[in-house]
Amino acid sequence: MDSDILLMQRMKNGDERAIERFVQKHYADILRYCCLHIHDRNDAEDMAQETFAHFFRSFGNYRHVGKARNYLYVIASNCCKDFYRKKREIPMEELPDPGDRGMEDVDRWLDVRRSVDALPQELKETAILFFFQGMKQADIGKILGISLPLVKYRIRTAKEILVKQLGQEGVT
Predict the structure, then answer these.
(1) Which candidate, 77, 30, 21, places its Cα nearest to that of 52?
(2) DSSP string of 112-172?
(3) Which of 4, 22, 153, 158 would be 123's cystine partner, CB 3.0–4.6 Å?
(4) What is the pLDDT along the chain (172 residues), one digit of tens a residue?
(5) Radius of gyration over alpha carbons of the chain, in Å?
């Protein structure tokens, strides 16, 4: 049973704690997804917040027929696309904090980031959901509105391209 069903029922009854719990449960994944699309952390946070704002604005019409998380990803994807339509410029990449990692790891991370960004949009979207978000292929198909064989094809194709660009050790 989808654990969001009970939260949804409580949210429809106006339970504020259920709303907070729902946001806490899904916010980190949605923010990570937005960060992978929008490389400025502040803009990505805005898009994550816009995702939840949109979800709750249309919540009265929402029919829980699948995983709410998948619906949030669809909204987040649209928010990110709208962001770029409005902005019409290439964002500056935010460098990761190397912390305990060496510069070699940071360079490798940037290489992977650039390679994923260079993928055709449909492959990029599938690769982000599969490799970075750890989503199941069936869920990716539902989010993107495509068949499971097409999801598998896109993952395989993205992986082949990334292996060529990064070398075998860059893609798992």
Answers:
(1) 30
(2) HHHHHHHS-HHHHHHHIIIIIT---HHHHHHHHT--HHHHHHHHHHHHHHHHHHH-GGG--
(3) 158
(4) 467 888 888 888 888 899 899 999 999 999 999 998 888 899 999 999 999 999 988 887 777 666 788 889 989 988 988 887 775 443 434 444 545 545 566 677 777 878 888 888 888 889 888 888 888 898 888 888 888 899 999 999 998 888 888 875 545 4
(5) 17
Residue 9 lies in a domain: yes
Residue 96 is assigned to a structural domain of this protein: no
Instruction: Compute φ and ψ for 134, nearest 5 degrees.
Output: 65, 30
Q: Is 98 within the bounds of a domain?
A: no
Number of domains in the chain: 2
Closest CA to 30 of 143, 155, 124, 159: 143
13: left (phi over 0), alpha (psi -120 to 50) or beta: alpha
17 in any annotated domain:
yes
